[in-house]
Design brief:
Largest sheet: 16 strands, antiparallel, barrel
Oligomer: single chain
Strand order of the largest sheet: 1-2-3-4-5-6-7-8-9-10-11-12-13-14-15-16
InterPro entries: PgaA_barrel (IPR049003), TPR-like_helical_dom_sf (IPR011990)
Keywords: Signal
Signal peptide: 1-24
CATH class of the domain at 386-674: Mainly Beta
Domain PgaA membrane beta barrel: 386-675
Number of helices: 21
Distance between the termini: 71 Å
Shape: elongated
Structural class: alpha+beta
Strand content: 25-35%
CATH architecture of the domain at 386-674: Beta Barrel
Radius of gyration: 35 Å
Number of strands: 16
Protein name: Biofilm PGA synthesis protein PgaA
Length: 675
């Protein structure tokens, strides 16, 4: 019987793929009570135990089995020996069979309540360990085991209200089950009660705080966990992500580089090295991160971790199709990979395939509704499907206004809920006022239309417009933007009565028809070029053609500051001379700009940033004047939540209008509100 018991208990214990001390245990080792029982027997019967059995913490399963044999020998001599019986039960529990020990304890009423409590606590700890180590092929497959652990912990706590260990283990179990708020609430009661909290509980709390988007508290808990166990892989990795979420990139970089340099398990070494590379991506050094990930991939071409990291980097660089290739590689080998599937939801949405994105998300919601990424994606989809108000108010100095070019524009657009995923109705109001010293003119139009997103191709918008001016007129506008791949974008616009017609021309009963095309090449977030051409055929037989070539190059790309150089060259021509409005035969302009952008605060959906732009150039109006143009502009951008974003700017501009220098202040306001 003893040999069979030894074989079973050893098999059970060795099934744990980690050292015993990694089990959710209290501050003192679980074998301490068993050692006390051995010491008690030895003091009463010094010759009853071999000398090799001494009161110390023993975690070797062979030693535990020998200890069990010793208790059995003692009980064979004295069946009523309570100390030997209690020691036997504790060793059986330590060997991985607390449920059997509990059942045996029920047969002996004289077993102390302290020992029985320990057995129930061991049962919960063992269940936690098994639930964390068992592999599940499908996401959410682990939930029933986690629910069972929580049940055991809560029942033990009810049975023993003073059990600190039950509360400790419940924090860990609740966090595992993604019941983060409950885990945090229980953890904070432990802190208020000033208990000596074990490291694994701090670690679970750090994870829960991070999922609840409270990185400062997460950092505090992870640091406490690392005091107890400096080499904990999960605590070290969790601290890195918490620091990154706080935008403490310097601290995150220093921590992950120090940790990844330590000797550790090869798989953990590889994961920490990958995280160290991803830290560069968090700092917006996406090109560097991509290069290093690809270099590391040469060493491990089939690593799903690297393919996932590359996919995320490609998404951040604006390349959803390349990201999807990496994600397909993963799901072809592991179709239920949760991280890959959540990233696919994002990639589908980035390509405008909202139907596919919603279908993927629906599957994840059914299997893993409590997963943090799934919850975030559910929220993102809900926000995307809300009504959306966009309001732009701008004070202008341009050739589109009266006299000296002063005026303002209010452009308001409200999109409704999606119809059948890809289509959204909208209403649109445009108001413009042009002002000179002795005169002003107002122009207003209302419109309604449909915006349709073609999956993986682009977006088409059609609008019926009614203008309210000197001579009310109904018109139609159609525009499209197309992304044939991750780099090239094309646009087209047709309007039977565009707002591009100057107000002075409208007052002279001149209308127009516009056709415009454009192309843009975006190599990455660092470099982009574009070319646009439009032709405005006006009712007085004037044909106005405008061409623009421009580009931007990001010279500085960091987590806090970005510096972007821009260049625009334009040419505008008019076929008709001596019109009632400003229409020089030819206008040539070239302007260089430099945009300084600071991100002063960023925390998930809340952010605050500033931008300072300098521009300088020359404008030549054939038959009028050649002069210097440019200006300076300052802007603040505020994101109050995932549904409200606001920006406002003011500056000083210098332009040439009808041969006359026009200079002075400008101001702009933009609001985006989803409701």
């Amino acid at each position: 019987m003893i040999n069979k018991s030894k074989s079973f208990l050893l098999t059970t214990l060795l099934a744990f793929n980690a050292p015993l001390h990694a089990v959710a245990v209290p501050a003192k080792p679980e074998t301490s009570l068993a050692a006390d029982r051995v010491e008690g027997i030895a003091s009463k019967q010094p010759g009853a135990l071999p000398l090799s059995i001494t009161p110390q913490v023993i975690i070797d399963p062979e030693d535990l089995v020998e200890r069990l044999k010793t208790y059995d020998q003692q009980l064979a001599i004295a069946p009523e020996d309570a100390a030997a019986r209690e020691g036997r039960l504790l060793v059986i529990s330590r060997l991985g069979a607390p449920a059997s020990a509990i059942e045996e304890a029920k047969q002996y009423p004289n077993i102390s309540s302290e020992v029985v409590q320990r057995l129930y606590e061991d049962q919960t700890a063992l269940a936690i360990r098994w639930s964390e180590k068992v592999y599940h092929s499908t996401p959410g497959g682990e939930y029933p085991a986690y629910d069972h652990v929580i049940y055991l912990g809560e029942e033990t706590w009810k049975r023993y209200p003073l059990s600190e260990r039950s509360r400790f283990d419940l924090v860990r179990a609740l966090n595992n089950r993604k019941r983060r708020a409950e885990a945090v609430a229980l953890y904070e009661t432990l802190q208020r009660d000033k208990l000596e909290i074990p490291g694994y509980v701090h670690e679970a709390a750090g994870s829960a705080y991070l999922a609840e988007k409270k990185p400062e508290l997460s950092v505090r808990s992870y640091n406490a966990a690392l005091i107890a166990n400096p080499n904990s892989f999960d605590a070290n990795m969790g601290l890195f992500y918490a620091l990154a979420d706080m935008s403490d990139y310097k601290g995150a970089k220093q921590h992950i580089e120090t940790f990844s340099a330590k000797p550790m398990d090869p798989q953990e070494k590889f994961e920490s090295a990958t995280a160290a590379i991803m830290e560069m991506a968090y700092e917006n050094r996406l090109g560097v991160a991509q290069s290093r990930l690809i270099a590391l991939q040469n060493e491990a071409p089939n690593s799903q971790l690297l393919h996932l990291a590359l996919a995320k980097t490609y998404l951040w660089r604006g390349w959803p199709r390349r990201a999807m290739q990496e994600l397909d590689f993963i799901t072809q080998r592991e179709s239920y990979n949760l991280q890959a599937n959540t990233a696919m939801v994002v990639a589908d949405a980035a390509m405008g395939d909202y139907r596919s994105s919603a279908a993927r998300l629906s599957q994840l919601q059914a299997s893993t509704p409590d997963d943090t990424d799934v919850k975030n994606l559910t929220r993102a989809q809900a926000v995307r499907d809300m009504n959306e108000l966009t309001l732009i108010v701008s004070g202008t100095r341009s050739k589109e206004n009266l006299g000296n070019g002063r005026g303002f524009i209010v452009d308001t657009k409200v999109k409704g809920h999606p119809i059948n995923f890809q289509m959204r109705p909208f209403v649109h109001e445009y108001f413009e006022r042009g002002i000179n010293r002795n005169d002003s003119a107002d122009y207003r139009r209302l419109g309604a239309g449909i915006d349709y997103v073609i999956p993986s191709l682009g977006e088409v918008e059609g609008e019926i417009q009614q203008e309210f001016f000197m001579h009310p007129k109904t018109s139609i506008a159609v525009q499209g933007k197309f992304d044939l791949n991750d780099y090239w974008k094309y646009s087209i616009r047709l309007d039977s009565d565009p707002v591009d017609v100057p107000l002075e021309a409208r007052r002279a009963r001149v209308s127009g028809r516009l056709a415009a095309i454009g192309a843009a090449y975006r190599a990455s977030e660092l470099f982009a070029v574009h070319a646009d051409f439009s032709q405005l055929n006006m009712s007085d037989h004037n044909i106005r053609r405008d061409g623009l070539i421009g580009g931007t190059a990001k010279l500085v790309e960091g987590p806090r500051y970005k510096g972007t150089l821009g260049l625009d060259v334009s040419l505008s021509t008019n076929s008709l001379a001596n019109a009632s409005y400003y229409n020089p035969k030819k206008v040539r302009a070239a302007q260089i700009s430099f945009a300084n952008e600071w991100i002063n605060y960023q925390r998930y959906d809340r952010s605050f940033g500033q931008q300072l732009i300098f521009s300088l150039g020359r404008s030549a109006e054939e038959g009028f004047r050649t002069g210097t143009i440019g200006g300076i502009g300052y802007e603040q951008r505020v994101s109050l939540s995932d549904v409200v974003a606001l920006s406002y700017s003011f500056g000083y501009v210098r332009k040439i209008y009808s041969g006359v220098l026009s200079k002075g202040p400008e101001a702009n306001l933009s609001l985006n509100w989803k409701f």
